[in-house]
């Protein structure tokens, strides 16, 4: 048996106590103060990048759907 205390055994684990609501709220506020919030310009840039990316992916998906649909109709003899 090893003398390592890196992983406690079930007997060594103490019963976890629940955090009270006020303590939880203070911890949340403290963590939110650490957040680096984006500026208005960064937010606008991020929004536009995501919007362009989504539109491009929609166009690619639509083109593939249309092309593969026409190919399936051609292969299986469906009407155009």
Task: Describe this entry's structure for a reader.
It holds the Pfam family SecE. It comes from Nocardioides eburneus. This protein is mostly helical and 80 residues long. It has helices spanning 21-34, 40-76. The chain is elongated.
Arithmetic mean pLDDT = 87
Please, what is the oligomeric state? single chain
Distance between the termini: 75 Å
Q: Biggest β-sheet: count, sense, barrel? A: none
Report the principal-axis shape: elongated
Strand content: under 5%
Q: What is the compact description of this entry?
A:
The protein is an all-alpha fold and 80 residues long.
Walk me through the topology:
Layout: H1 21-34, H2 40-76
List keywords for this structure.
single chain, 80 residues, mainly alpha, 64% helix, 0% strand, SecE_sf, transmembrane, translocation, Translocase_SecE/Sec61-g
């Amino acid at each position: 048996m090893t003398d390592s205390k890196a992983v406690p055994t079930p007997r060594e684990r103490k019963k976890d106590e629940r955090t009270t609501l006020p303590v939880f709220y203070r911890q949340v506020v403290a963590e939110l103060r650490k957040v680096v919030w984006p500026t208005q310009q960064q937010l606008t840039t991020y929004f536009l990048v995501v919007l362009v990316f989504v539109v491009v992916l929609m166009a690619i998906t639509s083109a593939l759907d249309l092309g593969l649909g026409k190919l399936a109709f051609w292969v299986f003899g469906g009407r155009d």
